[in-house]
Amino acid sequence: MLRPVAVLAMSAVCALIPAQAAREASLRADPELQQSLEQAVTVLSLDPALQQRRLAVSLVDITDPGHPRYAGLNDCEMMYAASLPKIGVLVAGFERIRAGLMEYSPAVRDMFVRMVRFSSNVDASRLIQRIGFGYIAQVLTSPKYLFYDPQRNGGLWVGKAYGGPNDHWQRDPLHNISHGATSLQVARFFLMLEQGRLVNRAYSAEIKEILSKPGIHHKFVKGLELKPDHEIYRKSGTWYDWHSDAALVEHAGKKYIAVALMKDARGGEILPRLIQKMDSLVCGD
User: Fold this and answer.
1) For residue 62, which of 30, 87, 89 has the smallest C-alpha distance?
2) Contact criterion met (CB below 8 Å) for 90 and 210
3) CA dihedral angle for residue 196, residue 28, residue 23, residue 96, rounded to 10 degrees
């Protein structure tokens, strides 16, 4: 079993220059979009949740792929994210397939689809056991991705499966969270997806297809139902008062990434309204 400290140490000492380059290439705030996002949160009366660190939000306008515009609120706040970190299982699975360590059979593809589109816990657990907790952690902390970065207060973490035998592994070493995320690192995941940098360009296209056609119509999907002709590539999570959603959205000739993590009993009602505001910031009313 790979201990958390060993995982992080490996990430820190393996290819220091690429790791530093990845951090320097991270998203930086666009002042105008940042101000607009702050105002949108205020209009929705979400300032208390923001101040209490029960809400984290990231928005990336990637309409011009060469010049992404970023805004984030509490975006390095590590939060419990329920099923959203299954995207970490997804990218680790395809890294294992690329390495020739796992066959990409129709049955495996079907498991990925059910895990993502319908958030199947059974399929997520089967995939986690097949890929391996240690391998998933190595991918998420690797210099290639830095989706879990101690210098950015953590990020995507899969420390247990979603039910079944051998369910528990290790909570994240910084915050003791089993299924964790920061909105910044989730936004980076979707940005690298759109750039063709998840695994490789061919597998990025396959991952994007798996993230399409959401099978659960709530939160961001519900909020965008009345927006005509939009495409959404998405993964959400729900556990009691914990609500999360993340998506790459193509709409009205625009393209953006939206991420929200929230602890609130009304999260299922709030996130549809939040995505409508975020959509308007990029696409207009």
Assistant:
1) 30
2) yes
3) -30
C-beta separation of 171 from 177 below 8 A: yes
Q: What is the DSSP letter of 150?
A: G
**Structure tokens given for 248:** 């790459």
Distance CA 247, CA 213 (A): 12
- The Cα 220–Cα 274 span in angstroms is 8
Structure tokens at 223: 């909020």
Closest Cα partner for 198 from 98, 65, 83, 73? 98
Q: Please give the torsion angle defined by the CA atoms of residues 183, 185, 187 and 188, in that order, rounded to the nearest 10 degrees.
A: 170
Domains held by the chain: number: 1
Cα–Cα dist 190/194, whole Å = 6
Q: In 212-238, which positions are buried (b, 16+ CB within 10 angstroms) versus exposed (e)?
A: eebeeebbbbbbbeebeebebbbbbbb
Torsion, Cα of 94, 18, 156, 235 (10° steps): -50
pLDDT digits (tens, 9 = 90+) for 127-151: 999 999 999 999 999 999 999 999 9
User: 10-19, 29-38, 66-75, 104-113 — which is least confidently predicted?
Assistant: 10-19
Question: In angstroms, how far apart are the furthest CA atoms of the chain?
Answer: 51
pTM for this entry = 0.91
Instruction: Provide the token pair at 75.
Output: 């975006």
282: amino acid identity, one letter? V
State the CB neighbour count (10 A cutoff) for residue 266. 11
- What CATH number does the domain containing 85 carry? 3.40.710.10
Domain span at residue 37 reads 4-283
Query: d(Cα 68, Cα 66) in Å, to the nearest integer?
Result: 6
Q: Is the pLDDT of residue 207 over 70?
A: yes
